[in-house]
Structures are given as C-alpha cells and as structure tokens.
Amino acid sequence: MLFSKSLLPVGASMLMLFSQAYTKQVESETYDPTDYPIFQLSADSDQAFFLEIPLSLAEAEGSNTGELLRIATQIVPGSEESVYPAFYPFAEKINALAESINATVDPVGARENYFHASTYYRSSVYYLVANQSDPRLVSVWQQAITAFNKAIALLHPAPGESFTAHQTNSSIGAYDIPGYFYKGSASNTTQLPTLIVMTGYDGSQQDEFHLACAEVLRRGINCVTLEGPGQPTPIRFQKIGFIPDYWTALTPVVDLITNRTDVDTSKIVLLGDSFGGTLAPIAASREPRLSGVIMLDGLVNLQQQIGLSLGKLEDLFKSGNAKEFNAEMEDVLINNQSQPIGDRYIFQQGLYTFNTTSPFEWFTQLGDIKVTPEVVEGVGDRPVFIARGQDDNLTGVQAVYARDMFINNRTNGVNLTTYQEFLTDLGAGEHTSIGAETQIFTAFSAWLSKIWGDYLFTDEQSY
Ligand SMILES: *[C@@H]1O[C@H](CO)[C@@H](O)[C@H](O)[C@H]1NC(C)=O
Ligand SMILES: *[C@@H]1O[C@H](CO)[C@@H](O)[C@H](O)[C@H]1NC(C)=O
Ligand SMILES: *[C@@H]1O[C@H](CO)[C@@H](O)[C@H](O)[C@H]1NC(C)=O
Ligand SMILES: *[C@@H]1O[C@H](CO)[C@@H](O)[C@H](O)[C@H]1NC(C)=O
Ligand SMILES: *[C@@H]1O[C@H](CO)[C@@H](O)[C@H](O)[C@H]1NC(C)=O
Ligand SMILES: *[C@@H]1O[C@H](CO)[C@@H](O)[C@H](O)[C@H]1NC(C)=O
Ligand SMILES: *[C@@H]1O[C@H](CO)[C@@H](O)[C@H](O)[C@H]1NC(C)=O
Ligand SMILES: *[C@@H]1O[C@H](CO)[C@@H](O)[C@H](O)[C@H]1NC(C)=O
Ligand SMILES: *[C@@H]1O[C@H](CO)[C@@H](O)[C@H](O)[C@H]1NC(C)=O
Ligand SMILES: *[C@@H]1O[C@H](CO)[C@@H](O)[C@H](O)[C@H]1NC(C)=O
C-alpha cells in the first residue's frame, strides 16, 4: 500500500532532493512532533510512516499499541539495520504465545495473537529488499502467511478462505494470484455485495484485511483481497514483477467470486489502495463486472510523481542513457548510505517488485503503468470515488489529475465522479488517510449505498 515518505522531507522542496542544499533530516533538525501532520513514532520521517502502518492495524486486531510502541523503542532513527531485530524476535514470541493457546478454550486470544505475530513478521522484512537475495524476504514472509492463515481460520461468523486464481501471460507464462475471501455473513445463500481490495507498491493483502476488510465486514458485506504480479507474495514465491495489463490479475478473481452463491454479482466494487489507486482503474477498465471503483488515493502516474524528485537524474533518464543513469542512481542514491532510508527504500523496493536490478528498466516499466484517457474511457459509466489525504505529499496533486481525467475523459463524467479530500486537522491527512479508516469508510459507505440503490448496511460485530 505504501512507499517512501522521506522523499519529501518537511521543509525540503522536492527539486532540492539531490542538490547540495539537501541535508539529511535526521542529522540536521531536532525532531519536534508539532511540525508534523500526525505524531511521529520516529525522528526519521520514513520510519515514522513505516511504523504508522502496523500501528493503524491495531484498530482491527492487527497489532496492539503497547506492543508496537515497545518495538518502536528499539528502532534507531535512520537505521534500517535496527528494524529486523526490533520486530522479528518480538514476532517469534507472540507467535509462540499464540501457539500455546488452546483455541477451543480461547479462540479470540489465539486469533489475535496470530494476527499480531503475522504483522510483526511482515514488518520485520520491510527494509530487507535492499538485498534481493536475502533469504529472510521469503522465509519470514512464509511465517507471516502461516500465522495469518491460522488467525483467519478463527474468524466468525465464518472463517476467512484463502484461494488461488490462475492466469497465463504470453511472456511470463502461467502464474498464480493469491487471494482471500471473507464472508459478510454466515449464510451461504444470502447474496451480499462484495468489496475487492487491491493493494499497491509494497503493502500486503494481509494488511488490507485489517485496514479495509474489517471496516466492510462490520457492515455485513463480503470482502476479497488479492495480490497480483509485483505484489508481496507473487514477487517472493513466483518472481513475477508488476505488469501494465493489471486487469489480467483481476479477471480470474472475479470469475471465482461470481461463481459463488453468497455474492450479489450486481454489487462488486474494486478499491485500490496507494499504488492500487493506479492499478485498480486500469484493472476495472477491462473488467465490466464491477459496479464502481474507489481510488485511495487518486494516483494517475507514479513515474511522473517520482520523476519530480529526481532532478537532473530525470534528464539523464530521458536521454535514454541506461548505463549512466544506472551508475548515477546506484552511487548517488540507491547504495548511498548517506541518503535517508526512505530515499533509498523507494528505489530498492521498485527494483525488487519489478524483478530487476536495473534502475533504468524499473523506471521505464513503471512509466507503462498509468491511468490514461483510454483507461478512463474503459471505466466508462461506472461511478468512481477518488480520495486524497490533504497532506499526502507522496502523491502530490495526482488525485486532482485523476479527478480531472475522470470528469473530462468520459461521457457524463461530472455526475459519475466523486472526489473527497480527507483532512489533516481530523487526523486523516496522511497518505491513504492511514489511521483514520473510520472516516474514509464512512465516506465510502455513503457512496456505495448510493450507487447500490440506497443499500442499507447492517451492523455485524463479527469480531
Ligand atoms: C504537504 O503539502 C502541503 C501543501 O500542499 C504543505 O502545506 C504541507 O506542509 C506539506 N506537508 C508535509 C508533511 O510536507
Ligand atoms: C483444548 O481444550 C479442549 C476443551 O477443554 C480439550 O478438549 C482439548 O483436549 C484441548 N486440546 C489440547 C491440545 O490441549
Ligand atoms: C545478500 O544476501 C546474500 C544471501 O544472504 C548474501 O550472500 C550476500 O552477501 C548479500 N549481499 C550483500 C551485498 O550484502
Ligand atoms: C505479460 O507480461 C508482460 C511483462 O512481463 C507485460 O508487458 C504484458 O503486458 C503482459 N501481458 C498480458 C496480456 O498480461
Ligand atoms: C457454508 O459452506 C461452508 C463450506 O462449504 C460450510 O462449512 C458451512 O457450514 C456452510 N454454512 C452454512 C450456514 O450452511
Ligand atoms: C525474475 O528475475 C529472475 C532473476 O533474474 C529470473 O530468473 C526470473 O525468470 C524473472 N522472472 C520473470 C517472470 O521474468
Ligand atoms: C464456475 O462454475 C462453472 C460451473 O460450475 C465451472 O465450470 C467453472 O470452472 C467455474 N469457474 C471458476 C473460475 O471457478
Ligand atoms: C551520497 O549522499 C550524500 C548525501 O546526500 C552526498 O553528499 C554524496 O555526494 C552522495 N554520494 C555520491 C557518491 O554521490
Ligand atoms: C482528459 O482530461 C484531461 C484533464 O481534464 C484533459 O486535459 C485532457 O485534454 C483530456 N483528454 C482527452 C483525450 O479527453
Ligand atoms: C447529472 O446530474 C444532475 C443532477 O442529478 C442531473 O440534473 C443531470 O441531468 C445529470 N446529467 C447527465 C448528463 O446525466
């Protein structure tokens, strides 16, 4: 769901990033929490944002605040080396605690501890992408999935179901799309609306259970998550990077969903989170079985957005000199320990998720994944909700671009497009409004109700 925060340090203009004037925030400024849109758990703004994710999951069984705040004490601002040792042993202990519980006696305790352990396992490997052959990227992820699957088996009124959808791509061959289906009610015959959640550049579908699915399951509708090429599980276990034709990852999932007896096939909406805000409309443009799309947040072109911060390096990229671009990117930035973590991480994660070691190849391929007028035309007459966090300087004005395109690049765009900015003063101004899920899902639910013909949500205190 997320990517680097520190590309845009407070007070630094984006174009200053690679100039002499740019200084590392951690060293040059005294950390003052009152300077930030949201309270930071680290003096390093990238690590602070990284920690906001597991912290936010606490609202729906994904962590406990005390545990997370304790872990945060072990993380040295600016040091990625301190992250794995802070999270991994903690995850091991919580997982052991979960294992020690007899789930017949205390199913809630078992479920919650497994969920927490899974979150801490996932967080522990966040920065390890710097070395693509680090075996922990895969082995610890497997531990995270194992713990998560034990947790969802204990959900009620119905256990979460994992599934694998299949697709074939002419250049990458057959591949799998892992997903989860969470039922909005115990019944197998009541046909309910379904929200499909597509994550982004680095977030996992397991995060999305706590961030997005929890909100809609409480309202009594089904939730589905999936990970396509480039996303955490496919890149780790199948080595397939992001592709432009992202609908090919969605369609087999919709095939599975529409076959079920507990889905109202006229009410399926796709939500794209973070870079999913780009992937979701692309996928929806060729998937007519969706009745709407939510972009959280609006993001038309990530390459363009990152390009703003590359300064002279963007000119080098445009000149087409791959060799020199790669050398500069590696020396100045990606492998330069003097750069803030976030500025290295966003590129390291990019290389990893596009299955390449060439920055030039990564940035070229990233440019092929964007919302175009053709995509908008493909979405056509389906309603679109575009969100923006007021202080989301990661995606800048991309949500405004998205709004203008969905209004102007299709027939009846004004009536079909809803745009809402979520406010910093209300704690919802961060990228994807993370940590303010109640506010965003209140807005989404009002919109869903309207597009589904005044649909009435229920109140299922399912967990
Ligand atoms: C984000 O950008 C807004 C202007 O759009 C600015 O007022 C705000 O200070 C920026 N926030 C951060 C954290 O840089
Ligand atoms: C778990 O608790 C149930 C109910 O008390 C009991 O029947 C079962 O044997 C216990 N399982 C283990 C592994 O102790
Ligand atoms: C990357 O990880 C592999 C496997 O652990 C290790 O052999 C290699 O030395 C690491 N590379 C770097 C640059 O640290
Ligand atoms: C197949 O994958 C390649 C990337 O390897 C991508 O360029 C292409 O668009 C994909 N085609 C389909 C039909 O998915
Ligand atoms: C729904 O189907 C599942 C899987 O086939 C089954 O385990 C469950 O008991 C069914 N639920 C109801 C309420 O019939
Ligand atoms: C991903 O990269 C690895 C290592 O270069 C390669 O073996 C593998 O075939 C690549 N995957 C795809 C789908 O191209
Ligand atoms: C959907 O159901 C039909 C009929 O039972 C079956 O032939 C088809 O394989 C199913 N498709 C999927 C994707 O499960
Ligand atoms: C590494 O980053 C530092 C801090 O921005 C910068 O001063 C230095 O020139 C960079 N190293 C290289 C080789 O560009
Ligand atoms: C699409 O919308 C954008 C933003 O309003 C506008 O600048 C552009 O001309 C439109 N393009 C097409 C092909 O309609
Ligand atoms: C757009 O919505 C308004 C208000 O509901 C309605 O009056 C108008 O006819 C709609 N325009 C189109 C082109 O559907």
Automatic annotation (TrEMBL):
<feature type="signal peptide">
    <location>
        <begin position="1"/>
        <end position="23"/>
    </location>
</feature>
<dbReference type="GO" id="GO:0016787">
    <property type="term" value="F:hydrolase activity"/>
</dbReference>
<keyword id="KW-0378">Hydrolase</keyword>
<dbReference type="InterPro" id="IPR029058">
    <property type="entry name" value="AB_hydrolase_fold"/>
</dbReference>
<protein>
    <submittedName>
        <fullName>Alpha/Beta hydrolase protein</fullName>
    </submittedName>
</protein>
<keyword id="KW-0732">Signal</keyword>
<dbReference type="InterPro" id="IPR050261">
    <property type="entry name" value="FrsA_esterase"/>
</dbReference>
